[in-house]
Specification:
The complex is a heterodimer of chains A (348) and B (294).
Chain A: E1 5-8, H1 10-17, H2 24-34, E2 41-43, H3 64-71, E3 79-84, H4 91-100, E4 105-111, H5 119-127, E5 131-137, H6 144-157, E6 161-165, H7 173-186, E7 190-194, H8 202-211, E8 216-219, H9 233-242, H10 251-266, H11 275-283, H12 290-300, H13 304-313, H14 322-347
Parallel strand pairs in A: 1-2, 1-8, 2-3, 3-4, 4-5, 5-6, 6-7, 7-8
Chain B: E1 5-10, H1 14-25, E2 29-35, H2 42-49, E3 54-55, H3 60-64, E4 71-74, H4 78-90, E5 94-97, E6 105-106, H5 109-117, E7 121-123, H6 127-142, E8 148-156, H7 162-166, H8 168-183, E9 187-195, E10 203-210, H9 216-231, E11 237-246, E12 249-256, H10 268-288
Parallel strand pairs in B: 1-2, 1-4, 2-3, 4-5, 5-7, 6-7, 8-9
Antiparallel strand pairs in B: 8-10, 10-12, 11-12
Helix pairs in contact in B: 1-2, 1-10, 5-10, 6-8, 6-9, 6-10
Classes of the chains: A alpha/beta (348), B alpha/beta (294).
């Protein structure tokens, strides 16, 4: 088996869990402590990546420049990485300055059927001698053949790896196996998996991905991340040790960073599988929507579970937070109409 | 009735083909050339099937026969328009650029049509820009102190052809630049989402504005007035959520249904920019003939 590359998304995906309010002190302390734990890269920034600090998704506490300059000096052995979704950030406003700040790795993500929008960005990153990876988000929404096609596109643009994101925590291990198997069989580059825990399957899915030939594992410490959280890296490290898989990770170091930084400072409340995140996983709705859905449910006095189910039916993709208010408003109107028709019927 | 003004279209993708259908309906314009590079592209075959004069010589077809048109619509890509712009300038063509190249004067007809008629190269920003900048402008007229404007444009994957996808970076950047240019807001942001859902979603745009104390009633009126003015040239333009105030921000939403000319009605993102292009071209043609544009 190829050596596994561990990507740590704690400071990026975890940004969702803290409504994008992670302080630069936390970033700097975290990076200093994790630097020699054997990780391949630490990804820093807003939950939806560069350029995503917005009213739509949530405003970051700090600018990208502040976040990256807090991380960079602390990372000597581990690469500093960023994430970018075309349509949120641009090359000129975001990738260029990030590279100038010393970012060594860029993950370019898109909805899993839209890889051609990553071409400009992957090519730009490669042309600047920075590692470029493609990310196919919401990958439960496409079948293995389609994902292969999209991964191949990213490979042709120069990506040195492609990561499948189960952004909604909606996949079963057998689905992960089928998808990774298919892509690994025809792509020469590294293939990876980024799981979410809505159905308590982030770990099982990550192990399924590794078994099927994935060589990039993308997770977070303590599972700190959007919705029900991510594949918990320190647990994975323990399991892989038990399976006698060489990880190159410092297990105790990961545990120490969990106990001394993630739990006391990063995490405002425990990341767990709530009833809502479970409904989100079952409906296949992006985990990052949870907080927005709770707010909209309160405002329009509707059941947040109904919002999840309706969003799932509408096949909403990452970045469409504006649909939440629309759906909540419609549900509220529908409820009123139901009340009125009930009233009318009871009068007849 | 004066003779129709002759126009050429370069670029045979979704935008070029949709333009062609709209121009054929125009009382003021006539398409004398539909040029691209590939005689086998779906747009080219479509144009041939409806009897348009086609060429696979792209801009060379105009260089070789400059008298074929007065107006040129460029529906290629930002990079290609960079090459076309100086050539068209030398040929003296009134150029309407539908790529996000931003070379010419940025044009949102409902805001600055008159200015654009005196330019030689006008840039139609992006479909997201055509849909959202007018509302952002209306909001900034009521509240010039607006601190920040953000727009989110969601379009169906099916309606975004290879050109749009290859230019997503310029698309995002140019829409943001247009927001700032037309409203004077100190900070702006654009988010573009491609949604692959089937059946395809209609083009939907959300506008957020950070205004500490908004006058919601005046905003509602201004937004509805702007909607009516745009409906003159984009019939499917509809405000689906009047401005509301929550969490310190004003939010409004607009949806664009297409006329279903080249692609089905879900492709409102084609119509919003092709209608704007035809509208400007018609104004140019009428002005030339001395017809009042009022």
């Amino acid at each position: 088996m190829d050596k596994l590359r561990f990507f740590d998304a704690t400071l990026r995906d975890g940004s969702h869990a803290n409504a994008h309010q992670i302080s630069t002190d936390c970033i700097s302390n975290y990076c200093r402590a994790i630097d020699d734990a054997g990780l391949y890269a630490v990804i820093v920034g807003h939950g939806n990546g560069l350029g995503a600090s917005s009213l739509q998704v949530g405003l970051s506490l700090h600018t990208e420049e502040e976040m990256l300059s807090s991380a960079k000096p602390q990372l000597k052995k581990t690469r500093l990485g960023v994430f970018l979704i075309p349509g949120f950030g641009t090359i000129h406003d975001h990738i260029e300055p990030a590279i100038a700040q010393g970012v060594q790795l860029v993950k370019v993500g898109c909805h899993c059927t839209e890889a051609d929008v990553t071409k400009q960005h992957i090519e730009y990153v490669r042309a600047h001698d920075v590692e470029a990876y493609g990310v196919l988000m919401m990958s439960h929404m496409a079948d293995p053949e389609r994902l292969l096609l999209e991964a191949k596109k990213m490979e042709s643009y120069g990506a040195i790896g492609v990561i499948l994101m189960d952004s909604a925590g909606a996949m079963l291990p057998s689905q992960v196996t089928d998808r990774i198997n298919r892509i690994v069989s025809e792509c020469k580059i590294h293939i990876g998996f980024h799981g979410h825990n809505n159905m308590s399957l982030a770990m099982a899915n990550t192990l399924a991905a590794i078994n099927a030939g994935a060589t990039i594992v993308d997770g977070t410490l303590h599972g700190f991340g959007a919705g029900a959280g991510n594949c918990q890296l320190e647990v994975l490290c323990g399991i892989l040790q038990k399976m006698n898989v060489e990880t190159g990770l410092d297990f105790y170091r990961l545990l120490d960073v969990c106990d001394s930084i993630v739990v006391p400072y990063l995490q405002k409340k425990p990341v767990e599988i709530t009833s809502l995140s479970l409904v989100g996983g079952i409906s296949g709705v992006f985990s990052g929507f949870t907080e927005h859905i709770k707010k909209a449910a309160l405002r329009f006095n509707v059941d947040p579970r109904d919002i999840f189910v309706e969003l799932g039916k509408r096949k909403v993709v990452g970045g469409q937070e504006d649909m939440i208010v629309d759906v909540a408003m419609n549900l509220a109107q529908r409820a009123r109409k139901d009340d009125i028709s009930f009233l009318m019927e009871s009068l007849l | 009735m004066p003779a129709k003004t002759k126009v050429a279209i370069i670029g045979t993708g979704n935008i070029g083909a949709d333009l062609l259908v709209k121009i054929r309906r125009s009382s003021f314009l006539e398409c004398s050339l539909f040029a691209g590079r590939n005689l086998d592209s779906p747009g080219m075959r479509f144009a041939a099937s409806i009897g348009s004069r086609i060429s696979d010589r792209s801009i060379n077809a105009i260089i070789e026969d400059p008298s074929c048109c007065e107006i040129v619509f460029d529906a290629t890509s930002a990079g290609i328009h960079m090459e076309h712009a100086p050539i068209l300038k030398d040929l003296g063509k009134y150029t309407i650029d539908l790529t996000p190249s931003k070379i010419g004067c940025m044009c949102i007809p409902v805001i600055n049509a008159e200015v654009c008629l005196n330019e030689r190269n006008v840039n139609l920003v992006t479909c997201g820009g055509q849909a959202t900048v007018p509302l952002a402008y209306a909001i900034s007229m009521i509240h010039p102190e607006v601190e920040y404007i953000e727009v989110v444009a969601s379009i169906s994957s099916r309606s975004a052809g290879p050109g749009t996808r290859a230019n997503i970076d310029e698309f995002t950047q140019t829409t943001k630049d247009a927001l700032q240019y037309f409203t004077g807001v100190p900070k702006a942001k654009t988010i573009i989402i491609l949604n692959p859902a089937e059946p395809p979603i209609l083009m939907r745009n959300t506008i957020y504005a950070v205004i500490p104390k908004p006058d919601i009633e005046s905003l509602r009126l201004a937004v509805r007035q702007m909607e009516m003015r745009i409906q003159h040239y984009v019939p499917g333009y509809r405000v689906i959520m009047d401005p509301i105030f929550e969490n310190g921000r004003v939010t409004t939403m607009v949806q664009v249904t297409g006329l279903g000319d080249y692609l089905p009605p879900y492709s409102g993102n084609l119509d919003i920019i092709t209608c704007a292009a035809v509208h400007i071209a018609e104004m140019f043609a009428r002005k030339k003939e001395g017809i009042n544009n009022g």
